[in-house]
Amino acid sequence: MGWDFRPAARSPDLLRLMRNAKAYFALIVGWCALAGPAAFAASDSATTTLDKYFDGLTTLRASFTQRVKDARGKEVESSSGTLIVSRPGKFRWEIQPKAGGAGQLLVADGKNVWFFDRDLEQVTVKPVDTALSSTPAMLLSGAGDLHQNFVLTSGGTRDGLDWVLVEPRKGEADFRRALFGFSKGNLQRMIIDDRLGQTATIDLQSVARNAKVAPEEVSFTPPAGTDVIGKPVS
């Protein structure tokens, strides 16, 4: 089963949002491509491992490492962080680049999406329905109907993981394709293919399913003295 990473026409939203403060609301996190439709045994109407994983999921807490490669396969970024999901519609994604810096924080509180770049002391905010349309973050947080927004097909087995391919139904979505990798039904890896041909591989560790999430973990108030771009909805 071949995986194809090729450049596309325009840049992503949510993928670069998580990776680069300057590109945040231009767009951040997408996922990977397989050779072609013949590689998939299941149809979109079939129940995938991802459907089963989301069944009964209310919260998700994990640490992660992330590696980003450009279209030529050269690693351009390495980072680590934490992910908290509270379904429906809330999550917290905190990232610390290994190259240094104060890091970045992305929070969806159910109404707004907040991006805080600590190095720039700058906060960007957008209504959640605008910022999360057809993004992997929306998929994880359960902010929209799964099969209405995405096509899901079985991606077979590779590297000891069972894969599910996710493709957005809308052409203006923030990522091209995504792979979710499972081991014994547990989510372990996400591979994101963005619209510039860059690929982010996210490995999850210390995953806690349906653990307690405090309300303040998925809410955000801009720190005093930071610049705020955009206006939140109440």
What does the model show?
The protein is globular, with a radius of gyration of 17 Å. Residues 1-43 have low confidence and may be disordered. The protein is mainly β and 234 residues long. The protein has a 12-stranded mixed beta sheet with strand order 7-8-9-10-11-1-2-3-4-5-6-12. The longest helix is centred in the first third of the chain and has 6 residues, at 14-19. It has helices at residues 14-19, 49-54, 128-131, 136-141, 146-149; strands at residues 59-69, 75-86, 90-97, 104-109, 112-117, 122-127, 150-158, 161-168, 177-183, 186-193, 199-209, 227-229. It has a single domain (14-229), classed as outer membrane lipoprotein receptor (LolB), chain A.
Short note summarizing the structure:
With 234 residues, this protein is mainly beta. It has helices at 14-19, 49-54, 128-131, 136-141, 146-149; strands spanning 59-69, 75-86, 90-97, 104-109, 112-117, 122-127, 150-158, 161-168, 177-183, 186-193, 199-209, 227-229. The protein has one domain (14-229): outer membrane lipoprotein receptor (LolB), chain A (Clam), CATH 2.50.20.10.
